[in-house]
Amino acid sequence: MDKSTRVICVYNQKGGVGKSTTAVNISQIMAEVKNKKTLLIDFDSQGTATLMCNIPTWDDSIPNIGQLISGIAVSGNIPEIDEILSCITNGTYIKNTQEKGKFGWKREEKKYPFDILPVCGADLSIGELAINNRQSFIYKHVELSYFMLKIITDKIVEECDYDYIIIDANPSLSMFAVNALVASDYMIIPTTMTTEAVNGIQSIFSRLEELNLVIPFFHPLGIVYQKFDGVRTLDKEILENTIFEEFKAKIPDVNSKISQSINDNFIPAMRTDKKYLPIRQAYIELVNEIEEKIYLYEKENGTIVRKGLYE
After folding, report:
1. How confident is the prediction for the chain on average, in pLDDT?
2. Quick count: other Cβ atoms within 10 Å of Cβ 287?
3. How many of the other CB atoms lie within 10 Å of CB of 238?
4. Residue 91 contacts residue 53 (beta carbons within 8 Å)
5. Which residues of the chain are modeled with pLDDT < 70?
6. Residues 26 and 145 sit within 8 Å (Cβ to Cβ)
7. Which of 41, 107, 152, 240 is most buried (CB neighbours < 10 A)?
8. Can you give the pLDDT at residue 262?
9. How far apart are CA 277 and CA 48, in angstroms?
10. Residue 74 confidence (pLDDT)
11. Hey, is 58 helix, strand or coil?
12. How far apart are CA 149 and CA 132, in angstroms?
């Protein structure tokens, strides 16, 4: 399966390190600035990426990734591409514009420039729990338990024309986290500038190296440092002592602004007003670097060919 779509997993087994924020902002910049057709898959049952796109995660009537996965896990229903596409949507935001010659503001609903396969309701969790149910399909076909998301992404890659698929993975090394990694060509790891978060990356890479020996599907691109100050002594010590490949782009320590933007129902990287410009610029630099790393890797190793389940 040799396609030009690149599937990138945003992963860290530790929560609270900006994983979902990174996935959403990368998707925004890929689509808006780089003009790449981009799909974001929210594969974290917490649904943070879905919420950031202003899609209600508590509404299980919304077609979503959980329905597709639980269908496979519980009853062995392998979705057709039309069923997958029916779950893909766009997040929206409200833009206020002042009309010429009129008093007040016009409120207009706009769509984000990237597509999203959201997670809503409890279906994704049900799919994961099915592995322990003796009556479920996945219990009886345990060899497929790590490939459920790959089945879906392979169909999207084959039938659609996305340039990038970004997967927001579950913060653990659970079955579903491995599903996200197996479905991906590349992986990036966001982390905050704290000793415990950075030290935890060693265990991540140790486990991923072991996993790569068994399931060689993904290539790590590097670490994205979040909440970066650069002046703090701790930040300097972490950079001086890191043994991991990192991105030159650093996301600045403006967590309050990121939180405020999300609270205002705007993806931070889309905002061009002065106080948000450093965030936007950092994510533009990060996306440029992601593309450069992929280009250099494939120049040396060839374009990644997505393998089928038993290749």
Report:
1. 83
2. 22
3. 20
4. yes
5. 1-3, 96-105, 193-217, 227-244, 253-259, 261-265, 307-311
6. no
7. 41
8. 64
9. 23
10. 94
11. coil
12. 18
CA 212 to chain centroid, in Å, comes to 20
Q: Take residue 248 and report the two structure tokens written for it.
A: 């030159």
Amino acid at 285: E
CB-CB neighbours of 251 under 10 Å = 28
CB-facing half-sphere around the CA of 34: CA atoms within 13 A: 25
153-to-80, 156, 160, 254, 291 alpha-carbon distances in Å: 12, 5, 10, 34, 20
Please report the pLDDT score of residue 295 as a whole number. Answer: 93
DSSP-derived secondary structure letter, 290: H
Residue with tokens 């893909």: 88
Three-state DSSP state, 305: coil
pLDDT digits 0-9 by tens, 18-70: 889 999 999 999 999 999 999 999 999 999 999 999 999 988 899 999 999 99
Given this model, what pLDDT does residue 1 score?
Answer: 46
User: Is the distance from CB of 221 to CB of 293 less than 8 angstroms?
Assistant: yes
Q: Are 7 and 162 in contact (CB under 8 A)?
A: no
The identity of residue 98, as a single letter, is Q
Q: Both tokens of residue 258?
A: 């990121």
User: How far is 53 from 150, CA to CA, in rounded Å?
Assistant: 24
